[in-house]
Amino acid sequence: MIHFEIAGSGPAVLLTHGFSGSSADFAKLVGQLSERHKVITWDLRGHGKSDSPADPAAYSVELSIGDMVALLDRAHAERAVLVGHSLGGYLSLAFHLAHPERVAALVLIGTGPGYRKDEGRAVWNKMVEDRARALDAKGPGSRGLALAARGILAQRDARVIESLPQVRVPTLVLVGEEDKSFLAGSRYMAEKIPGAKLEIIAGAGHSPQESHAEIVVDAMRSALAKTK
After folding, report:
1. Residue 228's pLDDT is what?
2. For 189-222, what is each residue's pLDDT tens digit?
3. DSSP labels for the chain?
4. Which candidate, 56, 84, 108, 191, has a CA 20 to 30 Å from the CA of 211?
5. Is the pLDDT of residue 37 over 80?
6. Per-residue pLDDT for 49 more than 80?
7. How far are the Cα atoms of 53, 155, 168 from residue 56, in angstroms, in the given order?
8. What percentage of residues in the chain have a pLDDT greater than 70?
9. Distance from CA of residue 142 to its chain's centroid?
């Protein structure tokens, strides 16, 4: 079972959280966004209130995209603005690559587009495996997160980063000025995605949607106004 909640009515906005997070990470945005939009929040497999299957094959980027499609269908939304934080931003880009006709706009928060070269992926994947092993060591309660790390967080190819120049929807890239790990990736996405707008949020770290919610909402409203 995938846990999700829908608030408000109007054009759809699908919010996807980052690794080890949950839909609660967007709590400060939902109330304001739902005044004019149908806001869909959800928990990735192995996260929050969603199920944590024991089968490693139940976790992948492709299955996560399938979950996002099912959520839009459940909400009777042909298209949506995809808002993604960290891993959720990467999944939003992957969703656009697979289903561009269902994306009205992208809002990418503290995220990156993956790696073009094998060397970069190898470094990232070592970090992912180290994190998964640490979660394994915590016991059964963290098993879902460990499986999600290996199945969803790990990088396998360059398709997403290579797709950036083909993005044809309004795109807003948000990143905290203290989010050192994602500043370069955010600038890269803003340069490669045609017409993308980059906003660096002063004083913010990796989760500006929590620490600087008002600034994030204001920036998103500007982006949402450009969608049809």
Report:
1. 59
2. 999 999 999 999 999 999 999 999 999 999 998 7
3. ---EEEES-SSEEEEE--TT--GGGGHHHHHHHTTTSEEEEE--TTSTTS---S-GGG--HHHHHHHHHHHHHHTT-SSEEEEEETHHHHHHHHHHHH-GGGEEEEEEES-----SSHHHHHHHHHHHHHHHHHHHHH-GGGHHHHHHIIIIIS---SHHHHHGGG--S-EEEEEETT-HHHHHHHHHHHHHSTT-EEEEETT--S-HHHHSHHHHHHHHHHHHTT--
4. 191
5. yes
6. yes
7. 8, 16, 34
8. 99
9. 21
pLDDT at position 81, please? 96
Domain boundaries of the chain, sorted by first residue: 4-115+158-224
Tokens representing 40 are: 């869909």
Give the CATH number of domain 4-115+158-224. 3.40.50.1820
Compute the half-sphere exposure of residue 103: CA atoms within 13 Å on the CB side of its CA.
Answer: 24
Write down the residue that tokens 């959280």 correspond to.
Answer: 17
Nearest one of 161, 68, 171, 177 to 116, comparing CA atoms = 161
For residue 86, report the phi and psi dihedrals to the nearest 5 degrees. Answer: 55, -120
Cα–Cα distance measured from residue 4 to residue 50, given in angstroms and rounded to the nearest whole number: 8
Two tokens, residue 194: 């045609």
Find the mean pLDDT for residues 19-40. 96
Distance of CA 13 to the CA centre of its chain: 12
Pull the structure tokens for residue 123: 């470094």
